[in-house]
Amino acid sequence: MAMHIAVAGNIGAGKTTLTNLLARHYSWEMQLEDMDDNPYISDFYEDMQRWSFNLQVYFLNTRWKHIQEIRGGNKTVIQDRTIYEDAHIFAPNLHAMGLMSTRDFENYTRLFESINEQIAPPDLLIYLRAGIPKLVHQIQMRGRDYEDAIRLDYLKRLNERYEAWISDYKGQLLVFNVDELNFEENPDHASEVIQQVESTLNGLF
């Protein structure tokens, strides 16, 4: 049975690492967030107000295309970040911080609502919960130049919105606290995560 599995979480939470781990274990196809080919990401971190709308529309279009590919295929795909995070967390946060105009935000929201009518949520959403120190540490460890400009208050606001979104999420959900897990380097932690995913997946059939 082909499924759509998605991994959600703040910047630096470990989404790509977990996506890789589970894809290898289950032989799932991966759909990664390709930041290197994103034409707006560097400009955005340099001048968020100028580029916020462009970046969010780019993400919206890209993820919509990915969902169509996943649902049109016959293989289980694990996706790094969801279209819902853009719409419920990143875009509203930019608007609230004065980094996206009300006009642009309303335009973006109408666009998302039109798309949302045509898509289904993932069969399983895995949320990686992480505190600010963990996020900062992991962002620094991966050393992406454009992420040097990320502010702590930006990460904090995103975390608050993630928690609000997850507390109201209606689909099949699995939450891991990555402050207490190092599934990249600790095999026991990796096994624990896989075990919990396995039990949740068994409950879906």
Can you put this structure into words, describing what you see?
With 205 residues, this protein is of the alpha/beta class. The protein has one domain (4-202): P-loop containing nucleotide triphosphate hydrolases (Rossmann fold, 3-Layer(aba) Sandwich). It has helices at 15-26, 41-46, 48-72, 83-96, 102-116, 132-142, 152-167, 187-202; strands at 4-9, 29-31, 77-80, 124-129, 173-177. A 5-stranded parallel sheet has the order 2-3-1-4-5, sandwiched between helices. Helix 3 packs parallel to helix 5 (102-116) and helix 4 (83-96) packs antiparallel against helix 5. The longest helix has 25 residues, at 48-72. The model has no long low-confidence stretch (mean pLDDT 91).
